[in-house]
Design goal:
By secondary structure, the protein is an alpha/beta fold. It has ten helices and 13 strands. The strands form three sheets. The protein has an eight-stranded parallel barrel with strand order 3-4-7-9-10-11-12-13, surrounded by four helices. A three-stranded mixed beta sheet has the order 6-5-8, with helices on one face. It has a two-stranded antiparallel sheet with strand order 1-2. Helix 9 packs parallel to helix 10.
């Protein structure tokens, strides 16, 4: 009788936790988030945002990306605008190797050699300010910016297509431009489609995605998801989860209205006090608080990684030299070598397509 009970119990566990193929039984990872009553589902984009390198690397630098169960890598070729100027410059000799064209080519090739899909995400660096504040006083400056920005975006779009890059972002956090000059962006997207055949998105700032008027021309609604979720010094899972309620409903509504899936082109939290209060803040705050970071990550996974209209995201950020990245003495955004890395590994492993 005892043997029959044990056999019945084993069979039930097998049917619940595993699936049988013609050759073997495959068990999916058992992942739970305490307090989360949702069933996490398969997600297309379990990604990391790669930090550009100063010199050449090899495929072994992407092995830790595989080890955290990421399936996508965002690769970021930077352009910049000088103080008092309006022209976009890129592929300049003094830039870091990974920010330039050849470094981008090699980064894409290395990621693909490790089985990763790629989001190519050109990103402007505005000297002395944030890209979201970029503005010009004259029409001539706007036109100069737009002409040179188009060159930058078209160059990397063509490169992306030639290398089979799966997704491409036409811009990042350009708040004023996408509102004030929407027709420019519509024309730019049409131009990109003449040279790039993959999926397209735009990385809107968290407080600006509702103002973007050209989502219909893109494949995904992209959001850099630094939404404030908790005022607590050590935010609990519950406060972070509840703190998403209003924005969660707005994002869901936007997805339904536009009939487009949502991706978080960036998301992440620092291991500091008040991690959920102003998650975009990369400066100041010399505290250390791993628990708050863990709870904020758990809440965003619980909220979104179970939704059919949500396609995944790219955590911010991941350094190619994993062994020396992050760790106990680091309170920056990277989750590397911190307790939260194991949480990410578990969730990504469970929800991979």
């Amino acid at each position: 009788m005892i043997n029959k009970i044990l056999l019945l119990t084993s069979t039930i566990l097998l049917l619940t936790c595993c699936k049988k193929t013609t050759e073997q039984v495959v068990c999916e990872p058992n992942v739970t988030i305490e307090g989360c009553n949702k069933v996490l589902t398969k997600t297309e984009m379990n990604g990391v945002s790669m930090v550009s390198v100063s010199e050449r690397i090899d495929a072994s630098n992407y092995t830790p990306v595989n080890n955290v169960n990421a399936t996508w890598a965002a690769i970021i070729p930077f352009g910049f605008v000088r103080n008092g100027a309006s022209a976009v410059e890129y592929n300049i000799s003094w830039q870091w190797y990974g920010e330039k064209r050849q470094g981008t080519i090699e980064s894409i090739a290395l990621a693909k050699s490790k089985g990763l899909k790629v989001l190519l995400k050109p990103h402007l660096w505005i000297m002395g300010s944030w890209v979201g504040d970029l503005d010009f006083n004259t029409e001539a400056d706007w036109l100069n910016f737009e002409s040179t920005y188009k060159d930058y975006i078209m160059d990397f779009a063509s490169l992306a297509d030639s290398m089979g890059v799966e997704a491409y972002s036409v811009g990042v956090e350009l708040k004023k431009s996408v509102v004030q000059r929407a027709s420019y962006w519509e024309t730019l997207i049409d131009s990109v489609k003449t040279v790039y055949s993959g999926k397209l998105t735009y990385a809107a700032n968290w407080d600006n995605y509702e103002n973007v008027t050209f989502w219909s021309k893109l494949d995904y609604i992209g959001i850099d998801a630094y939404f404030p979720v908790s005022e607590e010094q050590t935010p609990s899972f519950e406060s972070c989860y509840d703190g998403w309620e209003s924005d969660f409903e707005k994002i869901k509504s936007k997805s339904i209205t536009e009939n487009k899936k949502v991706i978080f082109t960036e998301f992440g939290y620092r291991n500091v006090d008040f991690a959920g209060k102003e998650p975009w803040d990369a400066n100041g705050n010399t505290t250390f608080n791993s628990e708050g970071q863990e709870n904020a990550y758990k809440a965003i996974f619980c909220r979104f990684w179970s939704e059919p209209w949500f396609e995944g995201g790219f955590l911010w950020k991941w350094y190619p030299n994993h062994a020396s990245a992050g760790g106990a003495e680091n309170n920056r955004f990277t989750p590397q070598n911190k307790p939260v890395e194991e949480i990410i590994k578990s969730i990504y492993g469970h929800t991979n397509q």
